[in-house]
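Sat 14:20. Reprocessing the chain from the morning session after the first attempt stalled halfway. Input below, unchanged.
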Amino acid sequence: MEFSRWRPHPWHGLDVGAEAPRVVNAYIEITPFDLVKYEVDKASGYLRVDRPQRTSSQPPALYGFIPQTYCAAHVAKLADVERGDGDPLDVCVLSERPITKSEIVVPARVIGGLQMIDRGEADDKIIAVLQGDYVWGGADDIDRVPAVLIERLQHYFSTYKLRPGEPSQARIAWTYGYEHAAAVIEAARADYRHAFGA
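Finished this time. Tokens:
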């Protein structure tokens, strides 16, 4: 039996998933029950508090990233901007049953995504469903889940960084299905290999 003697870094030590880009491993940083934005510390791999959520808006789905991905030149090219945000590729995972724990690895079936531009940087949000979910698990494209679920994600990401008296710096350029989501994941994997040589 193979196992890690030490806790692997969630970004670099976990695998993207054997069936990527269709089914990926999603490392969950925050849940729909969190009022604080947590983010993996890039050096240590532990969760840290990024910021309290300013508004009453809560994430409408599990939110985290796909291991061994990076948003740089290849992802930016797909978004027609100069650069990516320099983070792992974000993923939102829809689940019919409430999942209240973070720092978990979730098998996620990719169905689409949101092309978000934040301060001129590509910051895509891949949308997936929990693999094996009894309600959403069979979805294979974004039009297979109710539009209101996608609207909630769009609203959350359009407003989650708002500051009083300032215009929003983030915008959703468009919503895409599985085919483009797969291209974004492969671009992020290429960016990761270029940046980290893995």
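The helical segments are 73-79, 147-159, 178-196.
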